[in-house]
Amino acid sequence: MTGYRGHVEAGSGLERRQITVGGAAVEIAKRSVGPMDNNAYLITDVSSGEALLIDAANDAEALLELVAGVSVVAIHTTHGHYDHWQAVEAVRAATGAPVLLGPGDQEMMEPAADRVVAHGDEIKVGSFAVTLLQTPGHTPGSVCVLLRGDDRPHLFTGDTLFPGGPGNVFGNADAFVQIMESLRTRLFVLPDDTWVYPGHGDDTTLGAERGSLDEWQARGW
Length: 221
Hints:
Elements: E1 14-21, E2 24-33, E3 38-45, E4 50-54, H1 60-67, E5 71-76, H2 88-95, E6 99-101, E7 115-116, E8 122-125, E9 128-134, E10 143-148, E11 153-158, E12 161-162, E13 165-166, H3 173-187, E14 195-198, E15 204-205, H4 206-210, H5 213-219
Parallel strand pairs: 4-5, 5-6, 6-7, 11-14
Antiparallel strand pairs: 1-2, 2-3, 3-4, 8-9, 9-10, 10-11, 12-13, 14-15
């Protein structure tokens, strides 16, 4: 689908794009919800109608409108911070989809997740699967989602990576070491054309950010 910019208006915006995975049509929808401009993403296998929702962050009504007409196989929560799961209970109740969360963040989320995932786990969505990448630092259980499209990799980073740097570690030096290690060993091993869909704000690519890794390391945030 042409015209996708990776930018949605805070609190209401919606953009869609269509890619192929193994020759099959896959739609990626990006919606901004809530007062913190959280991005929620829906990845849909067009043929089967199966879909993965990433971060039921806020505004259950808007998210239920987004998933209308598809079969949600799972709700992946990128990490346990409150602003990323406020609509989880309502969306889970309406869709019957299990809620997934990374290890170490279980006590941060209420209601509880249905399944704690591990690095390298795959989620089957119709004709394709996404791979989960554990990226601790912003929180202990931060987990990104990798979709290997025919055009390029598509990476959903939650609050691990944004345009301009890693997610906030709130002054914790050990967590900063951890998040930079996650970036270098789990994300920036992917090619430069990898499209990055962050948990807030505009999209970017790994190529646009790669040259700043040493600068981020030196500044310490």
